[in-house]
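User: quick one, fold this
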Amino acid sequence: LTDDETQLMESYLALKYGVTLYPSNTATNRFDYILSNGMPIWPGNVQSSLIFAVFYNNISAIIRDDAARLHNRHSHSTNVGSILHMGVAGTKLSADGSELGDLDQDEIAVVSGNDGALGNTHISDPNECGDFTDRFNRKWLIHKTNNDRPIALLIGAQNNAGLTIGNDVNVANDYYSKLGPGYDVSLIVAESPADIEAGIYKAVIPMSYINGEHQCSYTFAEDDTYITFGWKLNNKGCVGDEDAQFTGTKKFSWTQWTSRTNTSTATGLTLPATSFPSVDLGDNIHVTSTKVVYPANVRANRGYPRSGNTPDRGSLRVQRRGGAVNQDVTITVEFNHPVIPEFSISDLDGYSSSYEEVEIYGQCSGSIYLPVLSYASSPNTARYKINGNIATVTKRGSVSSSNKNGMLNVAFQGGVTSITIKYRLKSRAYNVTRSIYISPITLRPVPPPPPINEDGLSFVKQVKEREITTCDPVEYSFYIQNTNCDEKSVDFSDILPEKMKWEVGSFGLDAVSSDANLLTFNPQISPAVTGSGEKLKIDGLIVPGQTTLVLTATAILDEDAPSAQYDNRASITYERIVSGKPVPVPPFYSVDRETLKPYTSFNAVWQQRQDKVTMDPVYSRDTYIAGSIVEVTYTLTNTNADIKEMYMDVYFNEEFEFLDYTIDVNGAVVVGAPDYPTLIYDPGVPELLSFAGLNGDDGFTLPTGSIKIKFRLKAPALAGLVDELDESGLKTGRKVDLEIGYDISSIMEDPCVLTAIRGLEGIKLIPYETT
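Assistant:
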């Protein structure tokens, strides 16, 4: 072979197998890697470009060279001390490369090498860009030769000791020990090695731990880019076991909790008294335990906690009464393997000066992990304020279980084997029945790394359920990630497919986005629904640097929407700074968060929509005085077939006396009828009227026609009226309003029936008459 032929052969073999060559016949002991056409792609021996000699360690390449029959879609160095794993952007990196993309052009290469440095630098500046405590001293040069076209790659950091020749104890101690599931790792991107050392970064990208390595996506636009990795102890959660892997989603509903689970009115209960059987969700994932523990002097109320279909099918309603402030009703859920849960908690509100508060955390392998909390409506109208993993009600007044202003979204970012929800009262323990609703729990696998464009942005969209009926709501989440260190302003838009409309008022933001930027930088932000309700547009969304903004929104299908697959995607527009001037860029479209496909899809099966059931509440007084009587009449009208398994709760101030009631079904007074509402009244809970079936455990039937429930309440004498307190707990000089609320639900599974009774909740405030 000639020298040129030898160089071609050695380049081919070294690039194919990830080998770093140290020839003895060159002055630098470096090698010039070339393509089959002779074009240099890593000129390690060229004296005029010493940077390739400095970063001449662990050489590997993504490459397509058709004449050489060489196509590396992913690669890592097989020399000792290898860490970096690169692949053409697809879904995720793996050992066999089965979910990678393809290079679409011949004679291109992306080659990497590192400077061989060891050790870590601790980050002492709290304002440094990125969420990590320490940074690798080792740096990598990523050099591409593809005619100046940006190229999207998956970047992995992994312990390659078992995939290389030889062993490097220093690399194992300094780097491999930080690349397991016990650490959060970030890719750091910069324009030069000096910028990395100075903390001047182009992007910092949190990585996902998938297939035994930390990985993310990044689009390399420049010919030469420098990277390294930052790390900190894992605060997201455990990694799922290999024998409990799944795709798609799983859903746990609280259907084990029936009205018979608790037939006591005692305080300090642990429910259920006998543990429920394990719930098999498939793929070796089980819910092994659910439990609700009441502290001393706090009552559970008979028939509660109980599963129902408000605000979502399979939700759990947890009631409490009595006790003092800061006494926790504790709800726990346990799993046999680490899972990533998400759910919502609703009916968070304030009664007089008594405010509800929930605290949520997960546990795994003895460590505590905190979820991300999000507002289900505009943060300005929400009844509560988020602080870390705690949501505390800050506004007076009650809301219903389906009211987005009292709904909190909860999403864990890593695996947990248990969830704990602590439900308490703040400021004042007003002795009335209070409640929260916990939605079914959705479980997801770790999503693939989101694609990041050349401007450092990623945009993915997620639908909560892929298989629904046309009566079900469609719940979307949007994730806009900004890996830059500076904030980015974007305009958001999503146009739904035909036969779908956005639900007005269903747009919410995560706590970090709303607190850190939206309320501070852009208080005028306002979601706008235009057209016939199919277009949602939000201008001026500020995405802070190193932040993922999470937006949630709900859509509904038209009554005549057909059975079909519904596909769509959202877009954001923004400006890119070119030569110091802002230049608009084409729309950046979302991809599906789970599949990375261009469109987010779900399948809907048509079901006959039912007429809405209506409630007509009538009150005999607009104000009250000491000793006055307030008569309330609730008229339920149903034009559909009978709706079974109905429950109705009515609550009011505990100082008011319940006098009597009557029930009229289609014009006839009924008493003790098996199918129609019967009052289940507990004198120990005098402010709660529960209407159920005759035995109190099963629900009643709402027939075609109407049911009229009439009852009377008597105000106490002046000495028995309750004084309103201010935020500090001091008397305001006025009496509290009489608050009368009702809540109607059914445990029927038919989603169209549930749509017909959705929103059958109401609250009436009758103030004290001061003149």
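User: anything notable?
Assistant: The radius of gyration is 31 Å.
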